[in-house]
Amino acid sequence: MPRTVRLAVIPGDGIGPEVVAEALKVLRAAVGDETRFEETHFSLGAGRFLETGDVLTDDDLAAVASHDAILLGAVGGVPGDPRLANANIERGLLLKLRFSLDHYVNLRPTVLHPGVESPLAAPGDVDFVVVREGTEGPYVGNGGAIRVGTPAEVANEVSVNTAFGVERVVRYAFAAASGRRKKLTLVHKTNVLVFAGGLWKRTVDAVAVEFPDVAVDYLHVDAATIFLVTDPARFDVIVTDNLFGDILTDLAGAISGGIGLAASGNINPDGRFPSMFEPVHGSAPDIAGKGIADPTAAILSVALLLDHLGLADDAERVRGAASDDIAGRDGSTRSTSEIGDAIAARLAP
Amino acid sequence: MPRTVRLAVIPGDGIGPEVVAEALKVLRAAVGDETRFEETHFSLGAGRFLETGDVLTDDDLAAVASHDAILLGAVGGVPGDPRLANANIERGLLLKLRFSLDHYVNLRPTVLHPGVESPLAAPGDVDFVVVREGTEGPYVGNGGAIRVGTPAEVANEVSVNTAFGVERVVRYAFAAASGRRKKLTLVHKTNVLVFAGGLWKRTVDAVAVEFPDVAVDYLHVDAATIFLVTDPARFDVIVTDNLFGDILTDLAGAISGGIGLAASGNINPDGRFPSMFEPVHGSAPDIAGKGIADPTAAILSVALLLDHLGLADDAERVRGAASDDIAGRDGSTRSTSEIGDAIAARLAP
Ligand SMILES: CC(C)[C@H](C(=O)O)[C@@H](O)C(=O)O
Ligand SMILES: CC(C)[C@H](C(=O)O)[C@@H](O)C(=O)O
């Protein structure tokens, strides 16, 4: 009997639905008969908010959470849309999902695919993974303000870091490094953020003992951005907090040919909650509906989904097909669905 | 009668004393007879800590503060030196000076000098200034931890932002943009750090009304790193918080040929406290004492010092001399003092 995977699909806004359609096409082409995907599509995002005033209700959350995995396109309306001024779709939807579903590993691989142009003159062999913590740090929403709008306003943001939260993501990162080139770089700002930084540093030092084959390195976040443009090939696995990971992965996407190619997984390694896979790019309302968005990042996110489901061979085939397609790109424009079709065709049995 | 400027000189550690010596050489060559620099040299940094156990005493601080301006080389010992394990020279010295002397503008110009190689394939015309807030944000040292070293540890860091602090630096940035290409980009992370981000955004919107000739733009910090490698020429003045400014200016240094060329000013525009000028680079203990450090960043910091003292012509001449020297560099190595001599010679009357 085939295994059934219940997949929650959140196409979202802007180019989200367009790239998700291609990702699903590739997903279906990739898996053999032993796996069947049962899709539930959820209408969530800025569009839904404008219709109903809801961002993510408790019922939505429970329904999404009852699935085995989640594929998300992109969410967010047109910047500056006055009707969205008081809706924070990012916090209310994307971050709410990540936090509620305990996605403590935000996995963001960076590969400079052959044939892709980097803005760097001599990028070298770029192939690393950022393991970004997903449920703590400055993202917890633990801020507040007093006397708002007056000259005496004070606005605070609290970064919360726990041994519980740091240790589990650090251990995941070490395991990832152990299965790769065995190098782990902690990125933080220990000389300024001494309390959070101290916890991260001590945790890495402690877990390192369990992984004697992994070489450990530390960089301040500012220095890490320098190396990402002068010597990105030095990195194998980077482990870092939620905010630093956000910054470093956009930069990593840029040096490897643009976030149009960058995939990500929001992973709950315990399996208590469904993990969520999404391209790093946003909803790009300016090019939405034109059929010109590049679906590659969404397709590479499907590969991460397959990895997560234990279908490593299928994941490798998707990555290979995408990589071959990328290598053959000659600058002529293909539509979103042409790219999806081409990659799916490479997976035909 | 010549004007006397009382200059506190903090050579610091590593290559600090070497580059400061050249910076002073250039300073002396640059100014005419109407200005006399009266130097007081302070022995502060990791070296001093190892000798006396003191980082910056109240007496040190008072003595430094009694000067008209400060020139700092670099502070910090050899990474991993066990004797420094419990001394945070950065917080205890550098940040203590910035906070005590109310250096609320951390000014960091980025110019890709003709002849300098960028790691970017097509950098374009890079010429922007980052106005980094210097006395608030996650740098305030308002953190703490409980149950340290146990599995139940919680470590927090608080970013403190005030209307008072944000408005003054935003106003400074607008004035700077007004005197340049009239474009200001606010960088923050308003979609996640909603309280701090809200304060920054509202403040920029409010001050913008006073500067109708300045075009205002907003970027999330993650997106800003992308543009810094794909289109750095788009920036004129960037205004941002302490931590984002730290990250963006190292990246900015990297794309413009390395932080070996990056100058900075820690400025108290009110003039209540002396402003402090320092290269962005660190003490680089690995190359210290060899006479091979590039003093250009320290020399360009002297130009910022001259600007601050109202000696704009002298500042321009220092920048011109440094720029000419840089343009003539052919990859052959010159010693630290040879570079200082060459730039000083260009300033000879
Ligand atoms: C949209 C935003 C909240 C999000 C983040 O900051 O995590 C995005 O930048 C990302 O990296 O997935
Ligand atoms: C040394 C460190 C505290 C400092 C900072 O983070 O501000 C440095 O990186 C800088 O940018 O001047």
UniProtKB/TrEMBL annotation, chains A, B:
Residues bound to Mg(2+): 222, 246, 250
GO biological process annotation, one example: L-leucine biosynthetic process
Residue sites binding substrate per the record: 98, 108, 132, 222
Protein's UniProt name: 3-isopropylmalate dehydrogenase
Compartments where located: Cytoplasm
Class of this enzyme: oxidoreductase
InterPro entries documented for this protein: ICDH/IPMDH, IsoCit/isopropylmalate_DH_CS, IsoPropMal-DH-like_dom, LeuB_actb
EC number: 1.1.1.85
One cellular component term from this protein's GO annotations in UniProt: cytoplasm
Cofactor note: Binds 1 Mg(2+) or Mn(2+) ion per subunit.
Reaction catalysis annotation: (2R,3S)-3-isopropylmalate + NAD(+) = 4-methyl-2-oxopentanoate + CO2 + NADH
Isopropylmalate dehydrogenase-like domain ranges (all copies): 6-343
Cofactor: Mg(2+); Mn(2+)
Family (UniProt): Belongs to the isocitrate and isopropylmalate dehydrogenases family. LeuB type 2 subfamily.
Species, as recorded: Agromyces atrinae
